[in-house]
Amino acid sequence: MVSYGTADGRRQTAVAVNPSPTLGGGVGVGAVSPLLTVGNITTVINARKRVLRAVDNVSFSVGRGEILGLVGESGCGKSMTALSIMRLLPPAAFVATGTIEFDGRDLLKLSAREMRRVRGNDIAMVFQEPMTALDPAFTVGSQITEVVRAHDSAGNEEALSRAIRMLDRLGIPNASQRVHDYPHQFSGGMRQRVMLALALVMNPKLLLADEPTTALDVTIQAQILDLIAELRAELGLSVVLITHNLGVVNEIADRVAVMYAGEIVETGSVAEIFANPRHPYTQGLLKSMPYLKTREKTLHVIPGRVPELWAMPVACRFAARCPNRIAPCVETHPELERNESYHELRCYNPTPIPTNSAMESAENVSNGV
Asked: Starting from the edge strand earliest in sequence, which strands make up the sheet with 123-126, in order?
């Protein structure tokens, strides 16, 4: 059993479990079910006379107190997956099929009023750019206290006190004074801490962090990652960390799911994915990172680009960019298959990289964060 403190000073107790090795909607190790199970969701966008699949048959699970890294290039569907979970999709988009079970309830079956109680209270999200996510016309304190009052019966003074405590916990100096400042009066790193305070003030069970370290220098990036790890340990927080930076994933996550063109192509534990990446896309992402130990004249580049939603291949979506392409890759669509070690892969012709190269790559990524 693990005891932890909440944002409002209460104490709670949680059962400490090992991170689940399963994705694909599976249940974790032991009798404890995952906190979040996304089952075969497909999110579509109505674009004039075309229906576009932004998220296509995606499944994964997140254990209690676990950090899952969701990685891939821009345009792969990572943010749309998070917005589908939060039910904050733009008007033209909707979840067409699948289930999103959170703590025993299917979020897709909740009414709009019931979902508002969940959103911000049980599930919170940190959006990509804090300067645009925060309202410039209101102080950061008023924005945080609005969340408290929306989900709690606390008065203005109590809500403000909780906002100050959370800002102080997240390392903002003189929190009792800075709570009355506006977003433009904070640096990029401090605005990101304000976003975390906004998300965590109600002590949610799950945090969806969409590129929380983008555009931050490496020092501030490391501080934000340390904060997320500390909050996971103290609050029993589960996290879905959305990023294109594999170094960040290696630093903090327990498991990783690699997305490409709206679908998951490889999943597994961080140790396994970094030591033995099987999908050519995952290998390309790892090779594309700059490393401290190995100095190359040019960085590895994955040729081509992510296909547009209106021109999605019917077979393997990575085939046009893949060095391992064979005949079935351009004929039929590969399924996501799981091996005995819970490593899932969507590929007809996976080529393991040499053991020494894989270990060196994992070490370089760790050192390069």
From this structure: 123-126, 206-210, 238-243, 67-71, 255-260, 263-269, 344-345, 337-338
53/33 Cα distance (integer angstroms): 29
For the CA atoms of 56, 62, 68, 74, what is the dihedral angle to 10 degrees? 20
Please say whether the dihedral angle defined by the alpha carbons of residues 58, 41, 235 and 244, taken in this order, is positive or negative: positive
The answer for residues whose C-beta is within 8 angstroms of residue 160's C-beta and 6 or more apart is 141, 145, 179
Edge-to-edge strands of the sheet including 105-106?
Answer: 50-62, 36-47, 93-102, 105-106
pLDDT in tens, 83-134: 999 999 999 999 999 999 999 999 999 999 999 999 999 999 998 887 788 9
Please state, in angstroms and rounded to a whole number, the distance separating the CA atoms of residues 37 and 23: 9
Q: pTM of the prediction?
A: 0.85
Q: What is the pLDDT of residues 278-294, one digit of tens each?
A: 999 999 998 888 776 66
Q: With contact defined as beta carbons under 8 Å apart, do 121 and 204 qualify?
A: yes
- All residues at 6 or more sequence positions from 56 whose CB lies less than 8 Å from its CB, including other chains: 42, 77, 261, 262, 263
- Give the burial string for 248-273 (b: 16+ CB within 10 Å, else e): bbbbbbbbbbbbbbbbbbbbbbbebb
